[in-house]
Design a protein that fits this description.
The protein has 439 residues and is of the alpha/beta class. 41% of the residues lie in helices and 17% in strands.
């Protein structure tokens, strides 16, 4: 039997020898495995930002209603097991290996028949389907990896489709206009399957509505039409109300300072109402209140310490909502200065992200570093971009994150620091800070 370390190492090395294979190849894997996805009630989620948050919020609400829920997400922050979970618990190392071996055996048994090795994401998706099939699940929530139309997850037959915020990201794969990107995300829309969307873009909305009409979707709902009232938003929580023609909730509470999570809550609550429409109204309402209250999502305006917050914002739209929330936290607190620690992937539009932060947040100090990945952008390129916008500040560069962690452990009490720019940065920082605390 394969060891856990061997399985993880193998999967992480897949891109070195396996390219994109097309959805038909993946469908063949599913057929050889007995189509494990066919017996699952699946909610399919696509979008530029917010997919993971809506996945976790909806899962939290459904679990509070007494249901068993599987989730498939990406990327992971610290451990690859995070991508596959049931009822909020990540797949165990043992079950991970068992699922890995089952998929591998299919490849070995049928490669002579023309079966092509799966890509990194496809392999994990196949593992998730095998694992979920063995559980007695009421729902499975699948987050697309990239785009939607050609995404591995798009071979499933969902009971509900959700499309979250749409903005400029992954342009080298999805297109360089909102119309093109929205069309790729709208590729998950399935005939006669309800669609919930909240894109934040009129252009994207038009693309989605047009696709719904082509696919004869009877029910497509813009959850962004909900009337929102923020009752109180401080550095640790948000109290708010949501009202529309489907529901009315007063005094919901999110235990996060991230104002952008209200938008994700709109979609998650709308989805819960569609999925649980036959549920007792009192049970549903209580599940919504508790599910939103118990929602937690790592690396999205997450406090690692009282004056240290990490956020995975890495594209234009995410940078804009980061600025809004970071300013709110700073203004509501008693901080004298604010700083950022920044690292980013080389394939991101980092110039736009840095420009947005410079214009809207205006930190007193800027620290630059890089994370442990071949995708990280070198600190010289980052520094040059920052100097273009932060010309009046001294910029400190840490060539590796270990050096930066030493700085983070000595942040003055009257300063607050935001680590931002990449989920890779956030994940590695979480891991290093946790190790520091336990050592």
């Amino acid at each position: 039997m394969t060891s856990y370390e061997e399985a993880v190492s193998y999967i992480l090395d897949i891109p070195k020898f396996a390219g994109k294979t097309g959805l038909d190849n993946l469908r063949n894997y599913m057929a050889y495995m007995g189509n494990p996805d066919k017996g699952l009630r699946i909610v399919h989620i696509a979008g530029t930002n917010g997919k993971g948050s809506v996945t976790e919020m909806l899962s939290s609400i459904l679990r509070e209603a007494g249901l068993h829920v599987g989730t498939f997400i990406s990327p992971h922050l610290e451990k690859i097991n995070e991508r596959i979970s049931v009822d909020g618990v990540n797949i165990s190392d043992e079950d991970f290996v068992e699922a890995f071996d089952k998929v591998m055996q299919i490849y070995k048994d049928h490669k002579e028949d023309g079966l092509v090795h799966l890509s990194f994401f496809e392999y994990l998706f196949a593992m998730a389907m095998v694992y979920f099939e063995e559980k007695s699940l009421d729902y499975v929530i699948l987050e697309t990896g990239l785009g939607g139309r050609l995404d591995a997850t798009n071979i499933v037959s969902p009971v509900l489709n959700i499309i979250t915020s749409i903005g400029m990201d992954h342009m080298q794969y999805l297109g360089d206009t909102i119309e093109m990107i929205a069309a790729e995300k709208a590729g998950i829309i399935t005939s006669n399957v309800p669609v919930i969307f909240n894109t934040g873009s009129d252009i994207a909305d038009d693309i989605i509505i047009g696709k719904c009409e082509i696919k004869d979707v009877d029910l497509y709902i813009d959850s962004g039409d909900t009337n929102v009232e923020i009752i109180k938003a401080d550095a640790g929580k948000i109290d708010f109300s949501l009202k529309n023609s489907y529901y009315s909730y007063d005094n919901l509470r999110l235990r996060t300072p991230a104002l952008y999570q209200i938008k994700n809550a709109e979609s998650a609550i709308m989805a819960a109402h569609l999925l649980l429409k036959k549920t007792d109204k009192r049970v549903l309402n209580e599940a919504v209140y508790r599910g939103i209250y118990n929602f937690k999502w790592a690396a999205r305006m997450e406090y690692l310490r009282e004056n240290l917050i990490i956020d995975g914002a890495h594209n234009e739209d995410a940078a804009k909502v980061f600025v809004e929330t970071a300013n709110n936290i700073f203004e509501k607190g008693s901080w004298r200065k604010k700083a950022i620690l920044f690292a980013v992937s080389a394939d991101k539009d980092y110039d736009s992200v840095i420009k947005i932060i410079s214009e809207g947040f205006d930190p007193d100090k800027v620290f630059i570093t890089q994370f442990n990945s071949d995708r990280t952008l070198d600190t010289d390129s980052v520094r040059e971009t920052f100097e273009k916008y932060f010309y009046k500040y001294d910029i400190t560069v840490y060539e590796n994150l270990d050096e930066a962690v030493e700085m983070l452990n000595n942040i003055p009490e009257d300063e607050i620091l935001f680590a931002v720019g990449s989920l890779y940065l956030a994940g590695e920082l979480r891991e290093k800070m946790e190790m520091k605390q336990t050592s």
